[in-house]
Amino acid sequence: MADAIIRAQGLTKIYSGGPSPDVVAVDDIDLEIHSGEIYGLLGPNGAGKSTTIGMLTTRVIPTRGSIQIGGVDLVARPALAKQLIGVVPQTNTLDRAMTVFENLEFHGRYFGMSAKHAKALAAELVQRVRLVERSSASVMALSGGMAQRLMVARAIMHRPQVLFLDEPTAGLDPQSRIALWEILGDLHDDGQTILLTTHYMEEADEFCDRVAIMDHGHILALDTPAQLKASIGAGRIVIVSAAGDLPALADALVKGVDGAHQARVVDGRIHLSVDDSTGLLPRIIDAAEAAGASVNDLSVTEPTLESVFINLTGKDLRE
Amino acid sequence: MTATTTHDAHSLRELRPAGQAYRAAFIGLLGRDMYLLRKSVRVFLLRTLIQPLLLVFVFTYVFPKTGQSVGGSSGASRFSTQLVAGVMGLAIVFQGIQAVALPLVQEFGVSREIEDRVLAPLPTWMVGLQKIVTGLLQGLLGACLVFPIAALVPATPVHLNIHWAVLLTLAPIAGWVAGALGLVLGTKVKPFQVPLLFSLIVLPLTFLGCTYFPWQDLGRVAWLKWAVLANPVVYMTEGFRAALVGGIPHMPLYAIYGALIGFGALFTWIGVTGFENRVVT
User: Which of A139, B56, B87, B210 could form a disulfide with A94 if both were Cys (CB 3.0 to 4.6 A apart)?
Assistant: First the structure.
């Protein structure tokens, strides 16, 4: 097994104070991020992903727990640990008073590079993130996708041991998403360790080496996307739209359909985990009619990380 | 993608010693502020010069020329002389607001770019401290620019009597207080409160900062004489009176230095802890 670059234990964040009751944003989680992997934290809004990234990037002080990053105790020595991390936050935090090139150049200076070195590296990075033509443009003139790519360039400029991205593709158009993932893929090929949060299951599935599924401050499951999907133990997911008492129908389907092993009602539809077998759909319709319900629609999908999430929590990822 | 040898994620930079990294980051952040100052030098000149120029021009040129009396019975020349110190104090305080408070309000509340600045490899409180140094340097620059206006524009003679030891120690202390006040305001004020910042804080600070009158002349309005002691600008203008002009009474130097250092320490503490509390939760 590869070396752990981040090792966090018993990580907990409780927001207290004020009139509202204490909020446990992250509840006693352990993390081990291996060198060179893309590690995804997948979960709905409010699952604790951003708070977790906040703690790993010195912005949020853990209520309890320890974080080692590249051998540095991040909780005890946050200022030193900042040398080892690169961060792409959810919001655009580019220096508005500066050009694209200057944003990189001065970032290099903050990290102790000589003016010459910072300029050379900035020139190389604008090329890497395909912003050469925009080099001397104000960052105010960049599109969302361009700004995001520049923030990635800035975050990797000082060669961090871990690159953190908080919802990197949220709000980006499909083309910008693809461009960003190409850059992240290249970084991954170079051996860059990446930790990102997302609530897009397709992205987690396609690009992450390992995915931790989070909800309510807990990590519910952690594995490769393939293993997570296999963990459901279902060959197919059948989504049943029907009128009537859905929880009762869900029970009836599990009992009455040969090869069905679990059913959950999510968002007004039944997600039925079934073995991959022929003649399934007529059996489902028959069982539903036997239970006194009429089926409006049936669709069959492969298990996705969303199915895993539904399986674990009984709800879907969308807000 | 461009293949590179110089930027390979595998060749991680070695962890630099804390002191060295902090120093480089501090200087880098300060360098950023100074670079932006150079880049926007025209805006800096306009915002620094217009207000004192108008003030000095109207009060010490137009009024004497039009025969209006400003400065009470002691005459226009005395008023011009004592206003030199007031204008210097104002220049420094305005830089604290304009170079530190207003950009910070934006960076905290609108652009959130402060969130990246605090990822520079130094302790968060040092990022706040760096802002104070920016305010100090710009304050000194502002005071240097304004001095010729205050000394040369008035129609009546200005009696300068420069005490270099006082000037060279007092100006940086005044700049520090202004920068630290800027940090306090920059971390406490929300973007929508900026207009209130001017009417509730900046105007009282400047109008009641003994800029237009020496503190000792307030003897006839005794309650005001004591009330204005809560205003740090009073000690700046009184200090500049001690440092720059002759024939005008001023507070004792120990009171000026003592109060300014006290205000500087207090504002630095409130500003730096407020800064840290806003960026780290």
Answer: A139
